[in-house]
Amino acid sequence: MTILLDELIKKRDVLGKLVLVTGDFNILHPGHIRLLRFARECGDFLVVAVNSDEILHSTQYNNEEDRSDVVSALSFVDYCFINALPTTELIQKLQPKAMVKGREHEGKFNTEKLALEKLGGKLIFSSGYTFQKSSSVFQHEGNQLLLNAEKVSSYIKNHEITREAVTRVIENFSQLNVLVIGDTIIDEYMQCNAVGMSQEDPTIVVTPDEKKLFLGGAGITSAHAKSLGAKNVSFYTVLGDDDAGKYAQEKITEYQLNANTFQDDTRPTTQKRRYRVGNKTLLRVNDFRDHDIGVDIQEAILSKLVAEIDNIDLVVFSDFNYGVLPQSLVDAIVELCNDKKVMIAADSQTSSQVGDISRFRNVDLITPTEREVRVALNNTRDGLIILTEKLHQKMQCHNIIVTLADEGALLHVTDSGKIRSWTNDKIPALATNVVDPAGAGDCMLASTAMALASGGDLWLSSLIGSVAAACQVSKVGNQPLSFQELQQAFDQLL
Question: Do 35 and 41 touch, CB atoms closer than 8 A?
Answer without folding.
Answer: no
